[in-house]
Records
---
Amino acid sequence: MLKEILLREDAPLTPEEWGAVDEVVVRVARNRLVGRRFIQIFGPLGAGVQNIHQDTFAGADSGAVSMLGEEDIHPVHTELREFKPLPLIYKDFWIYWRDVETARAFGMPLDISSAAGAANFVAHAEDDLIFNGNEKLGFEGLMTAKWRNTVPMLDWDTPGQAFQNVVNATRKLIDTGYYGPFAMAVSPNLFAKMQRVFDNTGVLEINQVRELVTTGVYQTPVLQNDGAVIVSTGPENFDIAIAQDLITAFLGPEKMNLPFRVFESLVLRIKRPESICTFEPQEQSKAKRS
């Protein structure tokens, strides 16, 4: 059914041209996406799947050690089950019929940079949904999860404060029962501030940070100014549920030209929000304490 809906066979593109479109869309998205680098994927489930359950887990006691296995322990269980819709994320682009004819007449490759641009916008929208959520549609992101941990943001212009902030955040997660491995995402501004020598060690501060955040330190433009988050990774804490992974559809000819759509359908499932720690501006932290 999806094959018919995508209308790919109706587009006047050769299999080689379709292959080039698919290759550039996937390559651009793979290079652009950040959330998928440390969040595990659940799926794909199928393009027609519109809702999926999200469990919030309880029962965080340590595992038991015994001879007969009869001790009363608190099993990991679903404390809350909600059903989340899987939104569409998409961007359209055009290929003009004259460009197709020119490429074929002169034996040149078809210029598909518009497909690359659409893939870039979709990837940006995906990361924005994962990190910042979408208040209008009722989606939480890593930066906005209601029960996440927080630590005050220190002054990263002062050498050593970025590393100390990461120490504070990982310690907060460990004290809450989340031992890592940890991953970190920051704004480009904060990422740049870590590119300096740490004290008198001759080592960049970001390399010291990576000693604590072993899954990776990533920068993403969807985090503005001083946005930063550290998470304890693992599918028991959160995952990305995908109905339809990134794909390109033909929308049907319009005035002889060829409109296409790059789209996907997915949602971030936060199962244990305490596995997330964001850095709060000092003024917000002071307001909370008061």
---
Amino acid sequence: MTHAAGVTTIANQAWDVTGSCVLTGEPTSDRGVRPAHPFDPESGTWGALQLVARYAELTVDRRAFDGGFAAIDANRQAHQFTLGVNWCPAAVVKCHVNFERTAFQGGYSGSAAVTRRPENVIFVRAQLAF
């Protein structure tokens, strides 16, 4: 990265683990879940239902602070978890409801960083794919 202070190589570190379970028994793939029995209330079929969970962490490289690329009072770490439900009423329709919480920790050593309050968000999304 280039900044008024010069050029610096910054190597942030992050990781996550994600798991899901399809309650209606359909297999999953890189293309998602395709319902075995599309939404049809008269037939008693409701599509596919999937539960998802994820945990992730991010650590910002100290050089981001040293080089002036990040505010000296910014937090260095974030921990995030997600819980969600995906409903696929048909092969081309997917509805998502996710709750995410991100907690922040620590600042650059020696700074007066104040740990931010956790952030919570609920995402609701409908998606069409052809």
---
Amino acid sequence: MINEFWISYKNKTSIEKMAIDSVNRAIKFLFQNIPQNKIVSIYIKGTFVTREMNEKSDVDIVPIVKDNKTLKKLQSVRNVKKEMLKPSELLPISLTELKNNKNAKHRGPLKGRPDTFLRDLEYYKLVYGKKLNKATYPMRKPEEMFKDEIKTLKNQTILLHKKGEYGFSQLIKQVFWIVFHEQKSLGKFPPRTWKGLNNFIKEKKHIIHKAYYFRIHPTKDKRKRAGFVSALETYLETFN
């Protein structure tokens, strides 16, 4: 049985209504292509849960499947139907990956390790299946995860963005999570929403304010984007 938590949403926006339709399509697609006994859980995370979706937002649906063979099959059929599923995105993880805290070999280099999904598990919505207990899986310490994410952003993500291989809105999203976990590492308790985090950090020159501006006011202006990336690189240097 599917937990349709979005039924409780009052005053749904047109974007949310389209998102709900896509979630229903995506879940139906999932069960049509993957045997039910191979699906452990389905979680939804991101701005659909926090109700901060905009016209560029995706709905992050995370099916937990039993093994890497099923994972690869799901990724393959999903890739064929990506456009039909939008704005929902199926972002599967296998139980094998979680148990070993190691990505399947066929995954790309920018995919975070499985424990980054587990880290914030309590903030996601369980839509179907078994509730995972993150204490039963291997996990890095929070400070180690944070350092690894900084390194990936500095040494891979920004470079790919400059080559045109990683979208600006995706980069903005990564900045949100880096800033959120930066605040956590300082012993603070930041909100997990864009508006909340923007208001929480009072330092006027902090990168979150530029990121929030471009979240609210998307731009294709290359100079403005380059200026933001330059500011981001300066911010990241503070973690050396």
---
Amino acid sequence: MRFNLTLILIVVGVSWGLTAPLSKIAVSTGHHYLGLLIWQIIVMILSLGIVQVIRRKYFFSLSVNSFLRFGLVALMGSLLPNSIMYKTYFHLQSGVMSILIAMVPMFAFPLVLVLRMENLEFKRLLGVLLGAIAIALLILPQLNLTNMGQSGWIVFGLLSPLCYAIEGVWINKIGLAKLDPVELVLGSSIIGLIVLLPVTLLNGYWISPLVNWGPAEIALTISSLIHSLIYVSYIWLIGRAGVIFASQTSYICTASGVGFAMLLLGEGYSIYIWGAVVLMLIGLIMVRPTK
């Protein structure tokens, strides 16, 4: 079971890492970030709706508890963090964004300790700290922190992993009620569409799918498909292994995101990256689920 969970963790992290350069390509033509987000939500609804049809599950729980979870995931797992990420992609490299998302475990770890959801274990604490050191190795040689404009976008970008950490801890604490992960993400996407669509249309941010498709539109669609299916796996992983373990996807996402950025976007990085990758993998092993 521990091996299977770790394998799923790696698949989720690598797949999410691929969405970073794809998102960078998506913002390259100047589409508004809300237009990009609404397109992502629509793709998620369509893809997960097909999954529900294949599973022959046409209805799911619509209780007060269900809507509480839909609202939580819609706000903290989609609308806020993805808006922040798409906005920040205009100003930072794809690889840097992959680095920032690795802050999820660093935000989640103190939250679960304060809420007494997990006991303080030195080995797991050390694993998270190794991840933090890995981030430092990745980010410090790459960034000119004397540039206050860039530093501001880095700080703004950190709000995205904070949202994911809060969402993961909260879902881990209250559970899914009578929902399964597919139903939870699908329901939250529908709520997100209802909230965001009027704002997008009224402000002229809508991106018509009838326009000539270029690299940006293709990249956004592929990224959205990956995000929908992998996010379901992430929610499932939280329930099976806990939020601290599940949040280690951000380490894998960082390593793969930097690698994909080098391959797809030609972004260049230093030798510090490879030392950071080693530290990430060691940290991953140290925070894997206990028996």
